[in-house]
Amino acid sequence: MSTYRIAPSILSADFARLGEEVRNVVAAGADIIHFDVMDNHYVPNLTIGPLVCQAIRPHVQVPIDVHLMIKPVDRIIPDFAKAGANIITFHPEASEHIDRTLQLIRDSGCKAGLVFNPATPLNYLEHVMDKLDIILLMSVNPGFGGQSFIPETLKKIAAVRKLIDASGRDIMLEVDGGIKVDNIAAAAKAGADTFVAGSAIFGQPDYKAVINAMRANLAAQ
Ligand code: DX5
Ligand code: ZN
User: Fold this and answer.
1) What digits encode the pLDDT tens for the residues 68-98?
2) Ligand 1, pocket-test mutation among 38, 69, 116, 140, most atoms within 8 A of CB
3) Domain 5-220 falls in which CATH fold?
4) pTM of the model
5) For the chain, how long is the longest CA-to-CA vector?
6) What is the mean pLDDT of the chain?
7) Each residue of 72-98: b (16+ CB within 10 Å) or e?
8) How many C-beta atoms lie closer than 10 Å to residue 37's C-beta?
9) Residue 200 has pLDDT above 60, yes or no
10) How far apart are CA 3 and CA 184, in angstroms?
């Protein structure tokens, strides 16, 4: 039985009330705050940066998980570390030197991870498993909240679960995109242990009811 973590994505929160939103979602049982950074270059949308990370940091004690959908990545990493990020992930296509970027994140004092788009092959993992604390599998194409889960991701989750188990390392396996109360158990069954959910949580009035329903389905699978 693994430890499951629920990571609400603030992309679907009310940005005008962000401090209150993150406090409320943590009070409702969130384990991690997922923080989506988009640059209108690597992905066709523009969101938030280190200043906003720094602004929400005093409002929550749980880890802040910064998902970088930006290119290039290296210059901004120390800024996020200083702004209070605990986990930083990036897409391998967005870095010229993947090993160096992973090391930069670790040297900044954060946990480091790679993110795989639905069509990105897993062979990027081959020579860097020893530098990974987390692997994030996208179950939608990155850029927007509220998209539908791509079922093919389940096979990819299972493949990564095997690689993690074979490595013997303690690497989190996170899934991001279209996660809802009714499909979270399937993602867990395939091998994921950390679940990003944006619209499923922030799109409902009662965050605790959604998180509890997710936990109930995780416990039942
Ligand atoms: C998409 C982001 C996701 C997004 C998930 O590019 O990386 O974290 O917020 O939103 P939902 O859960 O609504 O699919
Ligand atoms: Zn994300």
Assistant:
1) 999 999 999 999 999 999 999 999 999 999 9
2) 140
3) TIM Barrel (3.20.20)
4) 0.98
5) 45
6) 98
7) ebeebbbebbebbbbbbbbbbebbeeb
8) 26
9) yes
10) 14
3-class DSSP state of 209: helix
Compute the Cα dihedral for 117, 121, 122, 124 and give only its sign.
negative
Is 200 exposed, middle or buried (CB count within 10 Å of its CB: 0-12, 13-18, 19+)?
buried
Is position 176 annotated as part of the catalytic site?
yes
**Residue pair 188/153 in contact by the 8 Å Cβ criterion:** no
List, chain by chain if needed, residues with CB within 6 Å of any ligand 1 atom.
9, 11-12, 34, 36, 67, 140, 142-147, 176-179, 196-200
Rounded Cα gap, residues 74 and 72, in angstroms: 6
Reported as a pLDDT band with limits 50, 70 and 90, residue 1 is very low
Per-residue pLDDT tens for 102-144? 999 999 999 999 999 999 999 999 999 999 999 999 999 999 9
